[in-house]
Amino acid sequence: MVCFEVIILGGLGGPSEFSTQCFMVRPLDSDNLKSICIDGGAGVGHIMDTLLISDEDRNVTIEDFNRANDDFNRYFNICHNKDSKDVNYNVNPDRLITKRVRYNTTSLSNVIDTTMLGFSNKVMGLLEDKPTVLQKAYRIYQGIISYFITHPHLDHINGMILNSPLLVDKEVESKKTIYGLDFTTNALKSCIFNDIIWPNLSDSKIGKLQIETLNEYDSHQLREFPEWEIVPFRLCHGVKITTEIRSYSTVYLVRNKVKKNAIIFFGDMDYDQILVKNNNKVDLLNIFWNYLVEAVPLANLSGIFIECSSSSKINDKQLYGHLSPKHLISALRMLYDKYLSISNSKNSGDNKIQKFKLNVIITHVKMVADSRDSRETILEELKLLAKEHAELQDITFYLALNKYRFVL
Ligand SMILES: [Zn+2]
Ligand SMILES: [Zn+2]
Fold first, then answer.
1. Which ligand is nearest the CA of 235, by number?
2. Residue spans of the chain under pLDDT 50
3. How much distance in Å is there from the Cα of 324 to the middle of ligand 1?
4. Which 3 state secondary structure label does DSSP give 156?
5. Which end of the chain, N or C, is surrounded by fewer C-beta atoms within 10 Å?
6. What is the DSSP secondary structure assignment for residue 191, as one 8-state letter?
7. What is the distance in A from the centroid of ligand 1 to the CA of 267?
8. Which residues have C-beta within 8 Å of that of residue 373, sequence separation ≥ 6?
9. 358-363 and 22-27: which strand pairing?
C-alpha cells in the first residue's frame, strides 16, 4: 500500500551548487504540512521553484516545464523540435502515471508526467491563506520537523545551514532537530555550527535547533509521525584525502510500522565487492542488506533511493567514494541473493523468488561536461547492465529529477 510522498528538492550530486541532495518526505495524504528531510543539500529556494510549478488551478504548460527544469537547461542547449526520440525516463512509477505529455525540448523531457511535478494539490490547498510564493515556501519550511543527514559533506547540508536563521525569524519560527550518526553530528557541531563558519544556532540559549546523535541499528521513533520508524546504518564513502582513513556515510531505512511499507535512502557510498573481499574489509552494505531482508519483505519494499554518481566509463579510482552503474548492479544482485536465500529457507523452495520487483530511484548524479545529460547516460548504462542478469529484469530504474514527487 503506498503511504509515502517524496518530493525531490535536490536530486543532483554537484559539482554545481544547485539542487544537491535533499528529499522531503511526508505521509501521503497527510492533512498538515509536517515533513522530514533526508539530507539538506537544498532548501527554501528549491521549495520556491517547486511551488512555482505547483499551481492547482491551471494545467502545467511547457513553459512551466521548462522553468521547472531550468537546471537542465543551464547545462544543455534546448533543441526545440529536434531530438524528439521517444524515451521513457521513468520519472515516475508506471502505476502512478495518469497523464503523459510529450515535449520536444530537452532529451530528458520527451515523456513527462506533469501531474507529478511539484507539490500535491493537497499541500497547495494547505497554503491557500499565504498570498506569496515566499510566504508559502516559508510555511513549508516551518513544517520540516527534522533533518536526517547521511554525512556532513556540503552538498548534503548547504540548504539546511543557510536556511537555519529562519528558525529565529518571528514570522516563521519553528523548532527542528538534525539527526545523524556520530561522525555527522560531531562534524556539524564542531565544524559548522561553531560560531565561526556559521552562528551556533544549536546553542541551548536559543532552543530552536537540536543536533542529536543516532545509534547505528537503533530504531528511531518520530513523535510527529507515530506510524514511522527510521533506522540508520553506516556505509563506506571513500577515504579522506590527507590521512587516507575511511570516510563514512549513512543509509536510512524509513518504515511505516502500520502499513508495513518501507523506503530506503542511501547517502554517498562506495561499493566494490571484490575489493571488500580481497582486503578483508568489513562489508557494511552486506550488514545493511542482511538487516533489510529480515526486517522488510520484498513486497513491502516500496523504493530504494540510491546514488549512482558517475558513468561506468569513469575509472574506479576517480569515483572518489561513489557508485557507478556496474557497482550498483553488483549491489542489487547481492540484495537479490539475500532475498532468494530468505525465501528458500522459508519455503524450502524451488531456488527462485517470484519476482524481484523493485523501484530503484537514481540520485546524486554528478553532471559532467559532456554533450549528453549524465543522468541519461547512467540510466542507459544501468538498463543495459541489468539486461545481462535475468534476476534483475523486474527492477524499474527511475531518475530523481528535481521538483518531482514520488508516491511510494
Ligand atoms: Zn554528495
Ligand atoms: Zn559525500
1. 2
2. 57-58, 70-112
3. 14
4. helix
5. N
6. I
7. 7
8. 72, 75, 76, 106, 107, 108, 367
9. unpaired
Q: What is the DSSP string of 290-330?
A: HHHHHHS-GGGEEEEEEE--S-TTS-GGGSSS---HHHHHH
- With cell 508495513, the residue in question is 260
Using H for helix, E for strand and C for coil, what is the string for 111-138?
EECHHHECCCHHHHHHCCCCCCHHHHHH
Distance in Å, CA 155 to ligand 1 centroid: 5
Distance 212 CA to ligand 1 centre (A): 21
- What pLDDT shows up at residue 395? 92
CA 186 to chain centre: 23
Q: Return the ligand number nearest the Cα of 187.
A: 2
Q: What are the grid coordinates assigned to 173, written together?
A: 519560527
How many Å lie between the centroid of ligand 2 and the Cα of residue 237? 7
* Signed CA dihedral, 305, 309, 311, 316: sign only: negative
Task: Mention every residue, 6+ apart, whose C-beta is less than 8 A from residue 92.
Answer: 113, 116, 398, 404, 406
* Peptide bond connecting 131 to the previous residue in cis, omega within 30 degrees of 0: no
Long-range contacts of 63-69, Cβ-Cβ distance < 8 Å, separation of 24 or more: 64/114, 64/117, 65/101, 65/103, 65/105, 65/109, 65/112, 65/114, 65/117, 66/105, 68/117, 68/118, 68/402, 68/403, 69/106, 69/108, 69/109, 69/401, 69/402, 69/403
Beta strands in 2-139 (DSSP E): 4-10, 22-27, 35-38, 101-102, 111-112
CB within 5 A of ion ligand 2: which residues? 153, 268
Burial letters 186-204, b for 16+ CB under 10 A, else e: ebbbeebbeeeebeebbee
Interval between CA 75 and ligand 1 midpoint (Å)? 19
For residues 236-266, one letter each, b for 16 or more C-beta atoms within 10 angstroms of the residue's C-beta and e for the rest, the string is: bbbeeeeeeebbbbbbbbbbbeebebbbbbb
**pLDDT score of 351:** 61
Say which amino acid occupies 209: L
How far is ligand 2, taken at its centre, from the CA of residue 323, in Å? 11
Environment of ion ligand 1 (residues, CB < 5 A): 155, 268
**Ligand whose nearest atom lies closest to the CA of 307:** 1
Dist. CA 41 → ligand 1 center (Å): 9
Q: Which residues on adjacent β-strands are paired with residue 239?
A: 246
> Does the global pTM surpass 0.85?
yes
